[in-house]
Amino acid sequence: MTSEPTPAPSSLPTARLPERAAVVDLDAIRHNVGVLRQVADPARVMAVVKADAYGHGAVQVARAALAAGAAWLGVAHISEALALRAAGIEAPILAWLHTPDSNFSAAVAAGIDLGCSGWELDRIVAAAREQQRPARVHLKIDTGLGRNGATAERWDSLVGEAVEYQDEGLLRVVGVFSHLAVADEPHRPETDTQLDAFREAVAVAEDAGCDLEVRHIANSPAVFSRPDAHFDLVRVGISVYGLSPFPDQSSADLGLRPAMTLRATLSQAKRVRADQGVSYGLLYRTRDAATLALVPLGYADGVPRTSSGGPVQIAGETHRVAGRVAMDQVVVDLGPDPEPAALAGAEAVLFGTGDNGGPTADDWARAAGTINYEIVTRISPRVPRVYVGEGA
């Protein structure tokens, strides 16, 4: 996801915002990183800024997170890491999801740490030879998630091969890592099983001669629920953006502040009669004469089409989307009271901090039958990002 950032001071009045905007509060990012550092201490914090920082803007979030004390940045793809380097960010960056077409040479040249599940090892070594500098590698063990990472059966041989290349000066094994499957459900025993497997894998690597800088497996939920998973480094994504990874705990419960507010200026407001059908399929009909407000955000902007009934705050009151979400717009039934003329230029907030009872990304996740991660990450490039707070 890429979009041109629109810098803005914290005091920017609504009237000067674009007609649609995802407003990102960089002070909230810094606050959240501070909370995570405190909870994880003495482990260091890796701020995960993959997928354009979960839709918030990778470069801007990375700078804010580093200013707040994050020690590392994490991304999925090498291309994401290279974009951060091109923006002048020199902090340690780990990229972990590769294909045979990934640009390992560019990564080695840019000093990007590389996750390695096994098959990539020869390609990383070839890139190190080409660049005439050793690659920095984090070996990944699959402790039970079943995605990338070496299996337990393959682990000893992978470590042995990596150490041979390390002895040749072609790479340094600086980390061992894995990923948890059910840390957002703290009662489940699989996390204990994964942590046991991870400790065994770390011991194998260290016994083989790997001088590890970092051992890391904890994600956002594990930071809060499993201090025994912190090791040297925690990889935090959704919590950096102020959203809770737990279905039964809110952002406020964890001391976090949601960083993104999705808002728009109303396109139209009009009075309609009772039994007026609304949006495709006419699945919604007004009960009485009502004022309908048209919000210029739809599924092309990232509003889930499945989220009919999602909350929208207009003029301080929260209402529900009426009928189907369309490509470019949603309709909100405001009931019988508001006069359309009084709504000219009014602001509609789909989600934000939740202050004063306003809607949140969690509310939209429930309406769409998904998780808050998806709600913020899917906001499309058509919606300008506006940055507020220090450093905007």
TrEMBL record:
The keyword Isomerase applies. Pathway: Amino-acid biosynthesis; D-alanine biosynthesis; D-alanine from L-alanine: step 1/1. Catalyzes the interconversion of L-alanine and D-alanine. May also act on other amino acids. Pfam families: Ala_racemase_C (PF00842), Ala_racemase_N (PF01168). PANTHER family: ALANINE RACEMASE (PTHR30511), ALANINE RACEMASE, CATABOLIC-RELATED (PTHR30511:SF0). The keyword rRNA-binding does not apply. This is Alanine racemase. InterPro entries: Ala_racemase, Ala_racemase/Decarboxylase_C, Ala_racemase_C, Ala_racemase_N, Ala_racemase_pyridoxalP-BS, PLP-binding_barrel. It catalyses: L-alanine = D-alanine. The gene is alr. Keywords: Isomerase, Pyridoxal phosphate. PROSITE patterns: ALANINE_RACEMASE (PS00395). Its EC number is 5.1.1.1. Its cofactor is pyridoxal 5'-phosphate. The modification N6-(pyridoxal phosphate)lysine is found at K50. The lineage of its organism: Bacteria, Bacillati, Actinomycetota, Actinomycetes, Micrococcales. Substrate binds at R147, M327. Coiled coil: none annotated. Belongs to the alanine racemase family. Residues 259-388 form the Alanine racemase C-terminal domain. The active site is at K50 (proton acceptor), Y280 (proton acceptor).
